[in-house]
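Table S2 (text version). Query chain:
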Amino acid sequence: MSTSGGAAISSEQLKARYIGTGHADMTKYEWATNQHRDTMASHVGHYDQLSYYAVAQNESVGRVRAQMLEKMLEPCGPPPTRKKQQEQSSSS
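Corresponding structure-token output:
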């Protein structure tokens, strides 16, 4: 990758600039959550797309927006328990 001036951008700089690009220690759940939140934010941010969903669901635009914003809280459900947490709780 490069900037508009032609200088190369390292992957660390790219990841610092764009949160959704992830990192090596990112879990599948974190990655999926980021993807779902980005998608919902895009739908809410583009009125025409939001209006399309509202017509398809036979709901008001405000209600569809509220539903999508609510889905952004936990788009993939509750987070899974981590192995380290399970090991600590079972050894105690």
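Notes on Table S2: The CA atoms of residues 86 and 92 lie 10 Å apart. The chain has a mean pLDDT of 83.
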